[in-house]
């Protein structure tokens, strides 16, 4: 992995001035649920008012991309579509009115935007944005309701999660582009677009994990392991990882997990085991699996009186919370977390700086790297549970 970082050069934009022109480039296009992505030429229009066009240098795949590709939820209604929402790149050009970003800036695209002007953006209690918040059904740009991608014949190719990063060039709203230090390694910064920020932020911003506390994490994918990393940095004394895949355990140890539980190995419910080994339950639990039964186990694994459960998993099922209202009278709480509570444009640059200083072990999350044209192989690695993040170089 070190050789990959040392040998991968991040060059500046080509000297050819493409501003204001349509760019033809390669993209991985989804034509239907479960169908292999097709690497093909696409036309990328110039950015319009308050938009930026970004040359993507690195992108990776998370389970949200996988779910959309499979067609497991309503997010994948529009076809053809360019998926992807974890990436890093360099600004190629900016549209009218963009003042905080310029050509050549290093940026991270984010699915949870920050306009800075709406009621939510002005409120420090939330990281939601009324105009550019995450919306899996959105497939066009806010500015004019049109796409910036098209096939050679001019037919539209739709957007995904405010970002669409499975392409050599993408157009995003400036509210969804975070400028970072030009010295930050873009390979690693890719992870801050979603997985690591979501997990670490849940531990730091949403739960506010305290030194010496106990934590249980249900689901040890990249987000769950990022929670563990955040809890480790905060000084949690006991970090319990719960997963049915034992191959996740060695990686978990590297990011601070102190004890593992495989539900398949137990004769009692997981929460009963956790309550027994923690003398009443953990201070914080994190549900990262997107499963209602797991959510209930996470909730019951926390200590009465003060236990906090943070919900991070995506739940496409129409079923409601498996909690009786009276159970909340025991003093336990459930909190939802979107993008780790981070206001992307104002707070993510600081997280990037912390990563540059070695606060977080980002390299632990990149388990594979492949050239962009092998994107279907990268998807298969995630399907088979063999990768946390496969980094694709464009």
3D structure, described in words:
- This protein has helices at about 1-5, 65-70, 120, 185-190, 195-205, 220-235, 250-255, 270-275, 290-300, 345-355, 375-385, and strands at about 25-30, 40-45, 50-60, 85-95, 105-110, 150, 155, 170-175, 175-180, 215-220, 240, 260, 285, 310, 335, 365-370, 390-394.
- Strands 3, 4, 5, 8, 9, 16 and 17 form a seven-stranded mixed β-sheet that branches. A six-stranded parallel β-sheet has the order 12-11-10-13-14-15, sandwiched between helices.
- The chain is globular and about 65 Å long.
- About 25% of the residues lie in helices and about 20% in strands.
- It is built from eleven helices and 17 strands.
- It has two domains: about 1-195 and about 360-394, Quinone Oxidoreductase, Chain A, domain 1 (Alpha-Beta Complex); about 200-340, Rossmann fold.
- Belongs to the zinc-containing alcohol dehydrogenase family. Class-III subfamily.
- It catalyses: a primary alcohol + NAD(+) = an aldehyde + NADH + H(+); a secondary alcohol + NAD(+) = a ketone + NADH + H(+).
């Amino acid at each position: 992995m070190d050789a990959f970082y040392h040998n991968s050069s991040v060059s500046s934009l080509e000297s050819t001035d493409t501003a204001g022109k349509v760019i033809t480039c390669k993209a991985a296009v989804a034509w239907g649920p479960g169908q292999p992505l097709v690497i093909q030429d696409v036309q990328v229009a110039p950015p319009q008012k308050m938009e930026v066009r970004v040359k993507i240098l690195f992108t990776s795949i998370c389970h949200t991309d996988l779910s959309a590709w499979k067609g497991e939820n309503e997010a994948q209604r529009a076809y053809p579509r360019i998926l992807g929402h974890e990436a890093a790149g360099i600004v190629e050009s900016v549209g009218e009115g963009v003042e905080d970003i310029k050509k050549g800036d290093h940026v991270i695209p984010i699915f949870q935007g920050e306009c800075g002007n709406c009621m939510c953006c002005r409120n420090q209690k939330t990281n939601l944005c009324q105009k550019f918040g995450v919306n899996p059904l959105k497939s066009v740009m806010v500015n004019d309701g049109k796409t910036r991608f098209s096939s050679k014949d001019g037919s539209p190719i739709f957007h995904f999660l405010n970002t669409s990063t499975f392409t050599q060039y993408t157009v995003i709203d400036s509210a969804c582009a975070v400028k970072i230090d030009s010295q930050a390694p873009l390979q690693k910064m890719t992870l801050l677009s979603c997985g690591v920020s979501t997990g670490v932020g849940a531990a730091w911003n949403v739960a506010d994990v305290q030194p010496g506390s106990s934590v249980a994490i249900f689901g040890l994918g990249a987000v769950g392991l990022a929670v563990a990393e955040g809890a480790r940095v905060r000084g949690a004394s006991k970090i319990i990882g719960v997963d049915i895949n034992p191959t996740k355990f060695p990686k978990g140890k590297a990011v601070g997990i102190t004890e593992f539980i495989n539900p398949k190995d137990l004769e009692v419910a997981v929460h009963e085991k956790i309550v027994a080994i923690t003398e009443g339950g953990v201070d914080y639990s994190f549900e990262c699996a997107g499963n209602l039964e797991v959510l209930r186990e996470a909730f019951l694994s926390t200590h009465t009186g003060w236990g906090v459960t943070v919900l991070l998993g995506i739940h496409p099922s129409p079923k409601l919370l498996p909690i009786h209202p009276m159970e909340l009278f025991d003093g336990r709480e459930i909190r939802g977390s979107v993008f780790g509570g981070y206001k992307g444009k104002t707070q993510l640059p600081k997280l990037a700086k912390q990563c540059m200083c070695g606060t977080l072990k980002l390299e632990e999350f990149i388990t594979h790297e492949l050239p962009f044209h092998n994107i279907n192989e990268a998807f298969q690695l995630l399907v088979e549970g063999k990768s946390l993040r496969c980094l694709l170089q464009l």
